[in-house]
Amino acid sequence: MPRNTERTTVERAPLPGAQIGVDHVRLAYHYLDAGDSDGYASLVDENAVLTHPSGGTARGPDEVAALVFACLDGQGPHRPERIVARESTVVVTGRAEGAASGRRGFVDVFTLGVYGLLLTWRRFHADG
C-alpha cells in the first residue's frame, strides 16, 4: 500500500485559557501604569523567567515584577492598540506615552503558563 507523504497542517483551536490570558495581559498593563507591583506579580506564573538585555535575570513573580518596574519606569501609560491571542501566546501592539519614552511604539509578545498567567515577555520597540 502506498504511503501518503503529503503534510497536513492542523489548525488548533485556542485553549480555553486564552481569553483569561488576554484579560491577564490587559490587567498587567493597568497594574504597570498604576505602579502596582503586587498586582502585577499576581499575574506572573511561578515558573516565569525574564531576562533583560542589560543582563539582569528575574525568576518568579516577585523578581519578575521588580525587574519589569525597574526597566519600564516612566514609559507608560501604555495604550494597547491590537491584541492577538493564539493558544499560549498573546501579541500586543501599541504605544507607550510616558515622560521617559515620549511616544514610542511597541510590540509585546507574552507566553502564558497553564493557568493563563504570564510566563515570558519580550518587547520590541519602534520609534514614532
UniProtKB/TrEMBL annotation:
One Pfam short name: SnoaL_2
Domain of life of the native organism: Bacteria
InterPro entries (alphabetical): NTF2-like_dom_sf (IPR032710), SnoaL-like (IPR037401)
Segments forming domain SnoaL-like: 26-109
Descriptive protein name: SnoaL-like domain-containing protein
